[in-house]
Amino acid sequence: MLCEKCKIREATIQYTEVVNGNREEHHFCAQCAREMDFGQVSALFDGEFTFGKIISALLGEEGQADEPAFTQIVCPNCGTSYQQFVDESRFGCADCYEVFDLLIRDSIQKLQGSETHKGKHPKYSTKMIPESLTRDLPGASKRAAEQEETGTKPETGRAAELNELRVSLRQAIRDEEFELAAQYRDRIRELEKEDADA
Amino acid sequence: MLKWYEQVRMDTGSNYVSSRIRLARNWKEYRFPGSLTADEAGEMVRRLRAGLEPFCEAAGESFTGSLLAEIPEAERLAMRERRILNAGILGRRAPVGLVLSETEDVSLVLNGDDHIRLQLISPNQHIYELWSRADALDDRLNESFAYAFDERFGYLTSFPTNVGTGMRANIVVHLPALSTGKQFQSLLQSMTRFGVTIRGVYGAGRENYGALYDVSNSKTLGLSEREILDLVVKVAAQLNSEENQVRRKSVEVHRLERVDEAFKAYGLLKYARKLSLRDALSYISQVMAGITDGIITAGEPVSLYRLYFGIQPYNLIAAARGPVDREKLDAVRADYIRRELPEIKEV
């Protein structure tokens, strides 16, 4: 079928309009569709059609992605920014879910039709693998030691401050106190940099 | 030992070809694959491989472990055609690990889109059995690796489209009659309201060769694993039974035409010296339909379905063990089919 607008290219997009209960079907090519105003779904016609684009369009719909306060939010654990997440529809780490929590909850609800998990829970939540299996790897032992430090033992000094700051950062984002959140983020980065240099 | 796709039987009166369960899991200790450095990814893949013993023991099969970079390119692409790898991870620069069982029915992809992707495939429709097996194997993995999990969002994944159960359940059905009907596209459309995605396996939309359709859950959050399975099974069963109705009627009313169609397709497969992928898929589908309907037979149980994999370009190239001229591929395909096609008789 040819595009009903340009009547030159093959129509690849079917657009169904329901006005007062009357259904009308239209067929356009991608190029004409892109030029027309379909509101937020227009993003779907740019380039490849992916789930990623859908969630980006949904996120954009809230009109928040452009606000600097939102785009500046960065996950302290992996450095993924909210804008990056919107662009790629991809989380950088498990913490991102908590950091971007309020910003993404509606979008996940729209995408998945739910925002609450139902079903299996992990049987084991702590590490069961014998340490001997991975101990010989240099990075592994360092990580295990770190984990112990932040996990089971009482925390001291910088590690405790970092943790506290991360909690405050999340709280600030929840309360939509973005300036405060940015300050926490900068302080976290400073501390992490010192850690890395040390 | 026969690969899983060599065990697909289409002479049982049903149109179910295969079932598959995929689980996406991430290890709490590491950031998601997209934000790991090459060194971290390498370390993680090594540690994951080191902790797989309980998993392999529970699976009760022998496994081969490798890094994708160690596998020749043609074989990697052939694995994609056999549903072991997906297109996304083929292009990854970071180390990706693959652990594959001998019959190719159980596989793990390490550091793909997520840290761990567990996949189980079976011939025909055994999705509930697959899930109980996947569930148990998932626990064995979890014994070694604590998962990233959130009470509200469930299993945390790189992409928000997989969060929750992290599970994708697929059933592939063979619909040669239904898919030629005028109402087919709107039938598929109406099915999607239930929360499933239906895709043509070879080609998209109206352009589908071989009449295989893949039914899978569209959503992963807010439904339990059991509810997801029930949904996919319900839709696949509906398609199967509608297909059966149309086919039974066609055999009753137009038996000679159906036998004629099956034998013409068989004749082309058996004698052609050049076959394009499209044509070969269509003819194999027609012969398979005749066997399912009991109007023609191979005498002994055979899996015609394995030809669907065998005739794919990279499977032909990988099997040739030498360079294959692209332009000669249709001839190589026809040779392969002549070798592998069983003798068919009228019932």
What features would you highlight for this structure?
heterodimer, A: 198 residues, mainly alpha, two-stranded antiparallel ribbon, 10 helices, 51% helix, B: 347 residues, alpha+beta, 8-stranded antiparallel beta sheet, 12 helices, 43% helix, globular
SSE layout and pairings?
The complex is a heterodimer of chains A (198) and B (347).
Chain A: E1 13-19, E2 22-28, H1 30-35, H2 51-61, H3 68-71, H4 82-88, H5 94-99, H6 101-112, H7 131-134, H8 138-150, H9 157-174, H10 178-197
Antiparallel strand pairs in A: 1-2
Helix pairs in contact in A: 2-6, 9-10
Chain B: E1 16-25, H1 38-50, H2 53-59, E2 63-67, H3 73-81, H4 87-90, E3 97-101, E4 106-110, E5 116-123, H5 127-144, E6 149-150, E7 154-155, E8 167-174, H6 184-192, E9 196-200, E10 212-217, H7 225-253, H8 255-271, H9 277-292, E11 296-297, H10 305-310, H11 313-320, H12 329-340, E12 345-346
Antiparallel strand pairs in B: 1-5, 1-8, 2-3, 3-4, 4-5, 6-7, 8-10, 9-10, 11-12
Helix pairs in contact in B: 2-5, 3-11, 8-9
* Percent in strands of chain A: 5-15%
Percent of residues in helices of chain A = 40-55%
What is the assembly state of the chains in this entry?
heterodimer
Query: What do the pLDDT scores of chain B average to?
Result: 94
Output mean pLDDT of chain A: 70
| Rg over C-alpha atoms of chain B, rounded to the nearest angstrom | 21 Å
Q: Give helix % range of chain B.
A: 40-55%
Strand count of chain B: 12
Work out the helix count of chain A: 10
Q: From the helix content, strand content and strand pairing of chain B, which structural class follows? A: alpha+beta
Helix-strand pattern of chain B? EHHEHHEEEHEEEHEEHHHEHHHE
| Element pattern of chain A in H and E | EEHHHHHHHHHH
Structural class of chain A: mainly alpha
Uncertain regions spanning at least 5 consecutive residues of chain A: 46-50, 60-67, 127-155
Instruction: Note the gap between the termini of chain A.
Output: 66 Å
